Amino acid sequence: MKASPELFARIKAAITPLDTEATRQEYRDGEFPRSYTVKNLDERYRWDLFWAIDRHVKYGCSDEQLNDSHIDTMLRSIVPPLN
Fold first, then answer.
1. Is 4 left (phi over 0), alpha (psi -120 to 50) or beta?
2. pTM of the prediction?
3. For 7-45, what is each residue's pLDDT tens digit?
4. pLDDT digits (tens, 9 = 90+) for 38-64
């Protein structure tokens, strides 16, 4: 993973409170915007959580010049699969 340990910790701390069982169930049930277009539910879920966190935390990814692949690797290690 290319993200620094500090950035990883900040993003994990911001995402963990949002990753509730109620939210996970809503995604499993397809109760989110444009659910009919989703091809990879786990990917959509973890990225929706990422976009829901504070923008100042997310901007650390730009500062470290992380691309989407780097960010997704980090998110996969933070957010367990929905199944």
1. beta
2. 0.91
3. 999 999 999 999 999 999 999 999 999 999 999 999 999
4. 999 999 999 999 999 988 887 778 878
Could you tell me if 80 and 24 are in contact, meaning their C-beta atoms sit under 8 angstroms apart?
no
**Residue type present at position 44:** R
Q: Which residue from 54, 58, 49, 52 is spatially nearest to 8, judged by alpha carbons?
A: 58
Secondary structure of the chain in HEC code, one letter for each residue: CCCCHHHHHHHHHHHHHHCCHHHHHHHHCCCCCCHHHCCCHHHHHHHHHHHHCCHHHHHHHHHCCCCHHHHHHHHHHHCCCCC
Domain-by-domain residue ranges, the chain? Answer: 5-78
